[in-house]
What does this fold into?
Amino acid sequence: MPYHVNKARFGQLVEEAIESLPEPFAEYVEYLSIEVRDRSTPTERSRLGMPGDRLLLGLYTGRPLTRRSVEESGSLPDVISLFQEDIENVSHSEAQLVQQVRITLLHEIGHYFGLNERQLDELGFG
It folds into this structure.
């Protein structure tokens, strides 16, 4: 059974996950916009080639660091979206919810650093 919390509590869990990041990662989070949304849109899932009924826990939108040029400037900040309802749907306790928020955040930060799904799976953030 999914473990649900109110928006304020979920936001607090996200803040705690951000604050617990190791220093090399925490430094880069300043350059990201991290937002909590209820769920992803059908367009977002379609763009990723995901069936409409599949859960999407998080989404990185931007240009990974590995694909940037020193000539790039003036672009919008990269965004990590965390989808509360889907994260809750795979969590069955407060402890699982805390862990899933952290793993999802690290997974999306991995995309920011240019890691693909296979690499993230190998690191345990799949």
In short: The longest helix spans residues 94-112. The chain has one domain: 7-64+77-123.
